[in-house]
Amino acid sequence: SEGRNNLVAGCRIRNIGRSGVTIDGGFRHCVAGSDISDIGGAGIRLSGGNWKKLIPSRHLVENNYICRFNRLGGGPGVSVMGIGNRVSHNLITDTPHQAIVFDYNNHVIEYNEIYDVVSEAKDAGVIYIYGAQKSFVSRGNVIRYNFIHHITEHSSVVPYVNPGITGIYIDALNGGITMKGNIFYRNTGTAIFTHGPDSRVEDNI
After folding, report:
1. pLDDT number for residue 192
2. Is 53 left (phi over 0), alpha (psi -120 to 50) or beta?
3. By C-alpha distance, which of 44, 61, 83, 47 is closest to 7?
4. What are the phi and psi torsion angles at 179 (to 5°)?
5. What is the C-alpha to C-alpha distance for residues 129 and 120, in angstroms, rounded to an integer?
6. What contacts 91, CB < 8 A, 6 or more positions away?
7. Contact at 8 Å (CB) between 199 and 170?
8. Contact status, residue 101 vs residue 128, Cβ threshold 8 Å
């Protein structure tokens, strides 16, 4: 909570009922090179920065292996809130729900490999933003060079209802988001869904 320049590195965190690592406020904290598995809630939660002044917290989540999370409900592999954080070079897999959920401004989500997620949820994305109350101002986020593969759209209990399993899901009129250079392989649902203003979708495969 708060503070500056704290580092969680090379740790093995497992069999936790709630979240594996929580970073709440502060500046330039980092979770790197750790294995996080069999987690009841989120693998990693981070927030920080000043939203009104757009001051970034510059937290970093890098080179982690995050698997078998959200076992009891209530959390993605990485939850990214606040201003100006980066999630990069992580391997995220094996969960019934979403891999990365982000909100607010100026985050960078890049070079992550994600597969075999969203195996039970409906109307959900591998990488997802909602934030409906402020959707027009959650801008400046960049999602680039991620490898999202083997995401299987499963049947709905309601006949003829699309389960809505999406690689990158920009929900609730969020806009001003760049989605560039991502690779989608063996995704049986939609690769990218977005309906807010001013977003860029370019050079994805």
Report:
1. 96
2. alpha
3. 61
4. -120, 105
5. 18
6. 64, 65, 66, 67, 112, 113, 114
7. yes
8. yes
For 68, counting Cβ atoms within 10 Å of its Cβ (0-12 exposed, 13-18 middle, 19+ buried), the class is: middle
Contacts of 74 (CB under 8 A, 6+ apart): 18, 40, 41, 42
pLDDT grade for 158, boundaries at 50, 70 and 90 = low
Residue 176 CA to residue 54 CA, distance in Å, equals 15
> Amino acid identity of 113?
E
pLDDT at 156 over 80: no
Structure token digits, residue 13: 């965190």
d(CA 110, CA 201): 15
CA separation for the pair 4, 1 (Å, rounded): 9
pLDDT 10s digits, 23-72: 999 999 999 999 999 999 999 999 999 999 999 999 999 999 999 999 99
Confidence at residue 44, expressed as pLDDT on a 0 to 100 scale: 98
- Integer CA distances (angstroms), 62 to 90, 92, 113, 158, 162, in order: 6, 11, 12, 39, 34
Q: Which of 110, 111, 117 is nearest to 77 (CA)?
A: 117
